[in-house]
Amino acid sequence: MRISIVGKAQGWEDAPYEGIVWGIHSHCLTRSFTMVWDMHKIDGTDEERGCNSETQSRIIEYINKNKTPYMTLEKHDNIPTSIEFPLEEMPLKYSESSVSYMIWYAYHLGATEIELFGVDMSNFDEYHEQLKSTDYWIGYVRGKGVEVTVHEPTAVCKGYRGLYGYDFVDLLNKPAPIYQGRIYKTAEV
Questions:
Q1: Which of 36, 65, 80, 139 has the most beta carbons within 10 angstroms of its beta carbon?
Q2: What is the pLDDT of residue 183?
Q3: Which residues contact 77 (CB under 8 A, 6 or more apart)?
């Protein structure tokens, strides 16, 4: 079974419309998914993720109208298709992003192939923190025999300095490396 996971970064438009295709919360207002994921509070107070109460209302309206499965932190009475994420079944309670949860859950459901589209995580804000757990769960499911394809552009499963020992970039004595068109800042010493 193949499951495609669609983020909101460049490359999401290359994701298939056929098969099992999961997407991130507000992205369901852009295209259809077989399951929408929202691993945040959905009470309209989570402005940090760029989803105000008006957008959240539109998402819930879309989910209810289309009867789309909606994976959330907890079951919601006003969203009949909402599904509480089975956190107790997750072997290691480690996730910094919705994508991390999605990767583990795809494995949990028996996926033999997982594809990631529009999952970049290459900037040094929240995605930099999210990248670690995404890399972890990809390694975990690959170790269990699941084939994982991460479509470009992406920082997932890559070191921004290259392959250690082979492509090492001296960040203290050279200009900041350019990775996928983004310039990374070096640490000040």
A1: 36
A2: 43
A3: none
Q: Check: CB of residue 34 under 8 Å from CB of residue 21.
A: yes
Q: Would you kindly state where each structural domain of the chain is located, as residue ranges?
A: 2-158
Architecture of domain 2-158: Alpha-Beta Complex (3.90)
Report the phi/psi class of residue 118: left, alpha or beta, with left for phi > 0 and alpha for psi in -120 to 50. Answer: left
pLDDT (0 to 100) of residue 94: 86
Distance CA(18)–CA(95), nearest Å, equals 28
The predicted structure's pLDDT at residue 181: 46
How many Cβ atoms sit within 10 Å of the Cβ of residue 164? Answer: 8
**pLDDT level of residue 139 (50, 70, 90 thresholds):** very high
pTM exceeds 0.90, yes or no: no
CB 99 within 8 A of CB 5: yes
Q: Which of 100, 81, 78, 79 is nearest to 91 (CA)?
A: 100
